[in-house]
Amino acid sequence: MLRPVFLFKILLLSLVINFIFILYLLIRNANQQLFISRNDVYQERSQDYAFRGFNPVSNGIKLIPMPAFVRTEYSKFVITDQFRLVSNEKSSKYLTLALKRYSTYISTLTKLSIKVEQTSSPNLENRLTIYCSSKNCKSDNYPELNEDESYILNVTETDSSLSAITLTGIVRGLSTFVQLIERDKSSGTVFIPCVNIVDRPRFSWRGLLLDVSRHWMPIPVIERTLNAMELSKMNVLHLHLSDDQGFRVESLVYPLLHDRKDYFSQKDIRYLVDYAAQRRIRLIPEFDIPGHTTSWFVGYPNLAAEETRYEISIRWGMLKSTMDPTKETTYTFIDKVLHEMTELFPDPYFHIGGDEVEGTQWAQSQSIQRFIQQQNLKDKYGLQAYFNRRVQTMLKKYNKIMIGWEEILDQVGEKSGIDKKAIIQSWKSRKSLTETIDKGYRGLLSTGYYLDHLSSTDFHYKNDPIPDDELWLFNKEQQSHILGGEACMWSEYVSQDTVDSRLWPRLLAIAERFWSPSFMNDTLSMYERLFRMNHLLDDLQIGLTHLSLYKSRLENLFGDSNKKKDLLHPLIILADACEPCGFEPRAQSQKYNALVPLTTFIDALQAVSESIWKLENSPINYNVLHGVFQKWSLNHIRLNSLFDDPNIGKSKQMWGQDIEQLSKNLAQVGRIGLRVLDYGSKRTQHQDKNNSMNSWPVLTWIQYHSQQLDQLENQVLEVRLAAVRPVRRLLNSIKIFI
Length: 738
Hints:
This is beta-N-acetylhexosaminidase. With 738 residues, the protein is of the alpha/beta class. The strands form 3 sheets. Strands 9, 10, 11, 12, 13, 14, 15, 16 and 17 form a 9-stranded mixed β-sheet that branches. Helix 3 (93-110) runs parallel beside helix 4 (167-180), helix 5 packs parallel to helix 6 and helix 26 (698-714) packs antiparallel against helix 27.
């Protein structure tokens, strides 16, 4: 039994800690303002661990990204029909729009009519009061790299307040407030848990690259992507605007440059820049040069190293067509294009691509080889470095800082002559990022964040721009040169109809990796919060379609509309048990190009199956598993009439993948699952007592079924039978009893 003196000391220590914390909050909220310096919350990795005692995951808060600091109370703030968003300051246009936007979100979630007020009655308690008296909140400024995004959100039983010193901080705090809203299932009461949150991002560059060139992405796609990015606290949308398949921005100077049909007008670009800025997201353009430039040569073939007739490419990869960096006319052309395009994008950073320069046209050109010798450039790498220097000089003239893929430093290193202000984006290896920082440049990490490859969500989540085991590689200044990272959505196998399901919800895991402290790495918690947020994004009606149109896209796979009624449900069961494979399997099939519609079975699938994840990670419940496995084992019988169609050939072409084999495989997985459950409850290895399998050693029986599951998982090209995973987990658990 603990002594009274010892208990008194513990109580006294607890009171002191709480007093210090309350004093900290009072100081921070003095004069209804907030100032969080970079060192107050956390700046260095070593400071991250100061918050381990206040781990929000253990507090049951379901936010993603998880804030830096959360303190919870055992009480609730109930939202009633009297709730108001109140700003005590004169609002700028952007702040007014933000409050209106979030009042709409809160109204949508609560089914209440939420209004915004400039001032409120002193007696009004049911409110969220916004405090931001700095000049930043009174002007419609464009968001900047390294701006203060911190905020304090305080929710009590009777009141709530949000404080920040920038408009961006207010918007980040509002996105947290919306995520906190819950509904009591029994009473229907809408509430928010009482919390105090002190938050700011870990990295200042938290981006998404969206390729709008290979497959065109119109304005509604960009809008809904920006909406979801705002709620996820992402702050950079990097648009890949030109490639071999199209130049996607209107050029008035060179009107033959942009695509004739699918492109953004200059008015569109100005609209999107403003739309992003309202959500405190920077819009970074990329025009890829000197490779990936076939679209430039369609109207202006004299730019190419090999002057011939060019057409928009319908295939992708590293093509031979490349600009001629030895002609002055090339630089005159580029200079005029850059002048025009830099005026459309206010951000000081401008991406020139620079990746995958194939080099054959340069090698086969006598004039280019002669130029390399005369300029003492040695090889194609030296020639590209020469080209990059010329382009960087042009960008400086237009007050822009160059960004390029890691190849702009390839083979030339410090002799590249590229100004140290340039940012290098690493996509092929982590080693590239380390070398970039060693050479004194600032860097972004995209290695490990290629969403189009459809890797597992936890693979992206565990990929850190500065992992703990690499901290020793960098001093304090070098760590600050790692600005953050960008997830990449290349669109070879993604269309405007499928991009939402390829981005969400997996991008949320990357958003947390870029925002939250490094010790927030509980994968189980991440998935739970990610799926909750996925449904919240759908509930908020921000335009995302991957959940709302899931069933209708599966319906489109029926050639015979009469079969939809009876067969849609078993097809959904099959689809829920599957996940699409990524870039490599589709590329290996060699059946896709820019003209092939992406409307097959796997294009309708979610990138990650929520139902399978829950089966795989929830506590083992034999009754639940038996019901699911039984359903799978019988599902092929229900779907069988789909495959008896006399026009099956036409249907298979529409499906794209072998759905019939998938259906058979799911039934087999279900039967294996039932067999494993029988062993767990009855210790029988086959329900037929006369089956020889009952005489097998248990280890042999396990290995046999494990091999079967491995085959079934990836037997059908381009599709992963995710249903295998919970059965494999159950099978592996048997080993404990051997």
